[in-house]
Every structure is written in structure tokens, then in C-alpha cells.
Amino acid sequence: MIPSKGYAAQSATSDLAPWNFERRTLGPHDVQFDIQFCGVCHSDLHQIKDDWGGSIYPMVPGHEIVGKVVQVGSHVTKFKVGDIAGTGCLVDSCRSCDNCKEGLEQYCLKGRTDTYNALGQDGVTPTYGGYSDSIVVHEDFVLHISDKLDLAAVAPLLCAGITTYSPLRHWKVGKGHKLAVLGLGGLGHMAVKFGVSFGAEVTVLSTSASKEADAKKLGAHNFVVTSDEAQLTSVAGTFDFILDTVSAPHDLNLYLSLLRVNGVHICVGVPPTPYQVHAFSLIGGRRSLAGSLIGGLPETQEMLDYCAEHGIVSEIEMIDIKNIHEAYHRMEKGDVRYRFVIDMATL
Ligand code: NAP
Ligand code: ZN
Ligand code: ZN
């Protein structure tokens, strides 16, 4: 076994604190990489607090992981020592179901293995995430990272990036479409960048009037403060797509009314409580309510390559790991600009 150190939550109510644990000894197809940077996703906070139920402790969060390969198993062909590597939200899946065979490992029919707060495919071994010094992952679940971009700003692409890229690609959002991005946080700001890059007219729908200048800098064409009724009314029935990245409970019926006929409201945010949707909100405009979960391995690599080619990275605020609770506190207030990234050298 490989001795490792990280930051872990011991229960839903305890603060994160230093914790020593072990990574598995490398199998023939395993890659070990030292973690240089790890992004802080709102899902980390949801899972630490057990917002969604079923959390496993001790929990080492973190699924936006980049670093340098330090060891490879005897049969590894895709990576060598010294390569820059990344891992996102997935570290394994059954690899044999129809979805896995299609590269949609996130929808594995037998149950995917998340990077943390999950059990391995053996059903017993817990997984530990990126708030740690190094990680061991099967080479099929490790991504190649270009050295063209700032590595710390690339880390958030592994979750915030792919989670917004994947639905925009699936629904072929682009030129001629009006896209609204609901919530300008980690996911939201990446949705703006991709939406603009794909040619859509992008409107940010935000609770924070103070984010307007940033939204425009990110490339958004319009900005609407959702608490301002007049502003909301002015965009009623206008959007082809709404990409909903909000982490807290909110009224979907209100936002569905902003969609035009045939419009699609795509949920990626996962508030702790279920939505209540009135049938009239959908039938009144033949609207669809949809959802999307991260992205599979082939599409994640495609997204990373697209970002390298187009110079797309996350807007980040680098933090020392000992300040993680302050970062969570700001995240809960919607005050993230626009992704915290932990400098793992501070561990
Ligand atoms: P984040 O950085 O905290 O951003 C969330 C944004 O939502 C906030 O910045 C805020 O933007 C807005 N917001 C917060 N509270 C709100 C409220 N009460 N009403 C309306 N808007 C509110 O979080 P994130 O890391 O982007 O994650 C967002 C959500 O996506 C989380 O629930 C996370 O678990 C989920 N997620 C899902 C997937 C997936 O695969 N589907 C992957 C990753 C994350 P404004 O200030 O602009 O209003
Ligand atoms: Zn995430
Ligand atoms: Zn599968």
C-alpha cells in the first residue's frame, strides 16, 4: 500500500482536518500521480454535509484533480512518468454495459465508481478524492492534460468544464440559439465560456447584481438579475435553452416560463430537496425538462483538447488548504469568483 495524506471529513458535522490513509499498490494498468491542484466543487460541500444522503466517512473530497505522473504499472501504455495527468469525477465503471461501451461511463448500468464518497467495483473498497497528495487510478480513467494552459486553471475543467460542455454538445447548442445560464458560479461561468465559444447568444440569470461586469467579461451578451421582476418579464418566453447550475432550492416553474416553445430546461445543479413542477409550466410551451451528469471519459478528453485548442480555462482563486472552510462559507453565499482551487503544495 502507498501511505497518503489528505484532508478528510469524519462526519457530516465535523470540519475537514488532516488525515492519513493508504492508496492501493499499483496494479498493471494503474497510474499514480502527485496532485498539484484540486478544484473545489459545490458537490464537495453537498456530500460533506450529506445533503443527498448516503455519504461515506471518512471522506476525502475533490474531483478536479491535476498533477504529474510519478509511477506507472507494468502494462500501462497511455502514460509515462513525468506526464501531466488529470482525473475528474469517475475512477471506474463496469466497462461492459451498453453505456460504458458507448463511452458514457457516468451512466454505467451496473453503477459507476465516483472519485470519492463511493465504493470501488468490488463493492467494498472506499474511494478517496483529490484533497490529498497523490492518487492511484486505472489508466482508462486518467486524462491527458496539455502543458499549453495554466495547470491550476485547468483543474476545474475536470468537473465544472465537462458538466457544462457535455449538455451543450448533446443539445447541439450554438449559432442561432438563445442560451440562458442560471447561476454564475463554478459551473455557470464555464457554461458561459462554452456557450459563447459555440456561437450561442448567452444570457446570465443571476441572483447577484454585482456579477454583471464579470459576466460580460466572460463573454455573456446579456445579464438579468432574477430578483428584478421587470427584468425577468422582459425575457419571458425567449430562451431556447436554460442551463440550470443552481445549488440551492429554487422555483423551476418561474424559469420554465422564460423558455420559448420547444425550449429545454437542463438541470445540472443538484439542490438538496426535490423540485415541484406544475404540468402547465411544460405543456404551455411544449417545453422539456432535462438533466445531465458530468461526462464520459472520451468526451472529457475531447473537452480538454477543445479547451487547449481554444485557450479556455476556469477563472480561479487559489487557496491554501487550511482555508478550505472559508472557501465553503463563501460558496454557500454564492460568493465564488469563479472557482476555488487548492494549491496542494500547501498540504
Ligand atoms: P457554485 O460555484 O456554488 O455556484 C452555484 C451558483 O448558484 C451560485 O454562485 C449562485 O449564482 C447560484 N445560487 C446559489 N444559491 C442560489 C439560490 N438560492 N437561488 C438562485 N441561485 C443561487 O456551485 P457549482 O460548483 O457551480 O455547482 C452547482 C451545482 O451543480 C451544485 O448543486 C453541484 O452539486 C452541482 N453539480 C452537478 C454536476 C452534474 O454532473 N450534474 C456536476 C458538478 C456539480 P448567482 O450568484 O449568479 O445567483
Ligand atoms: Zn464537481
Ligand atoms: Zn457499465
Automatic annotation (TrEMBL):
CDD domains referenced in this protein's UniProt entry, alphabetically: CAD1
Pfam families per UniProt: ADH_N, ADH_zinc_N
Cofactor(s) in the UniProt record: Zn(2+)
SMART domains: PKS_ER
Stretches that traverse the bilayer: none
Protein origin, superkingdom: Bacteria
PROSITE patterns given in the database record: ADH_ZINC
Entry keywords, A to Z: Metal-binding, Oxidoreductase, Zinc
Domain Enoyl reductase (ER): 11-342
Similarity field: Belongs to the zinc-containing alcohol dehydrogenase family.
The protein, known as: NAD(P)-dependent alcohol dehydrogenase
UniProt source species: Flavobacterium turcicum
